[in-house]
Write a structure and sequence with these properties.
With 309 residues, the protein is an alpha/beta fold. The chain has two domains: 149 residues, 3-Layer(aba) Sandwich (Restriction Endonuclease); 139 residues, no CATH class. It contains eleven helices and five strands, in the order H-E-E-E-H-H-E-H-E-H-H-H-H-H-H-H. Strands 1-2-3-4-5 form a five-stranded mixed beta sheet, sandwiched between helices. Strand 4, helix 4 and strand 5 form a beta-alpha-beta unit. It is elongated. The two termini are 45 Å apart. About 3% of the residues have low confidence.
Length: 309
Amino acid sequence: MKYRRAWDGGEWQGYALQLVQLRHGHQNVQSVPDHVGGDAGLEFIHIGGINDPPTLYQCYAPGETVDNKKAAIAQRAKANKDLQKLILNKDKLCSLLKNLSIKRWILLCPFLDNKDVIGSTRAKAVEIRKAKLPFLAEDFDALVHCQEDFAGEIEILRQQTMMPMTLPILNADTEFAATRDGTIGSRITEKLNRGFKASLSPEQIEQRRNAYVRAHLYRENLLEELKLNHPALWDRSIQTLSAEEERLAAVGASSDIPGIQLKESVERIELALQKDLPNMALSFATQVAIGTVGEWLIRCPLDFPGDDA
């Protein structure tokens, strides 16, 4: 199964928290704020449960996602630096980890390509054990995990029903007016005139433009909401929309008639979204599909040569 490799640090931390909470239970996971005094080398504390020993998690999303060697160097450095913080922040952690005997420290990354990262991290754990820290178990070890280790949790996230399904457009009147009267509105109007001037009145073209502008704003706001609160669903949605755009660029539309082109594009996106996200409401798929076609009109993946025949 292929997973997304490139993540912003904060975005990856939020996603990783969802995975860890799904694995251990929300009630058993404590996030560690880093606004005051840093995070002391850990981001989540799993306090433990039956047959599920206490574990510390640190998140890291390498900036390098293509060069495996550079990514591995960065991952090793991150693990060594943050494991050393267990010693440097001994007093702070004694207070934070009261009565816990930590068996595992896990560096959670989007991907893991080089086994040397594992060896280096476990070797550092052996060094840390020698410090006899009061909150570490005698068999303390450090591991490096990635998305493949959380395949079950990722699938649960992907299949969760999306809420809210009908996200309102923020600052709707102001945002709509600015977009309608700006470059985006002008470009959509130009495309619609090129494709439909012979068959639609200026008023009808204006109505269609407004519908695409609203759908475009809806799509952008909803995808942003998914990115912040449902990263796995956002990732799958983006992959689906990108695949449809790549298909359009590769094979083109099946018809030269603008109306048919638009209708077929909307229907293909709706079907693709419903296939990849089966719990998605049809209204969501339709809004995102229309908004995506509007975006294609803006960016030109979908274009019309002239008046419709």
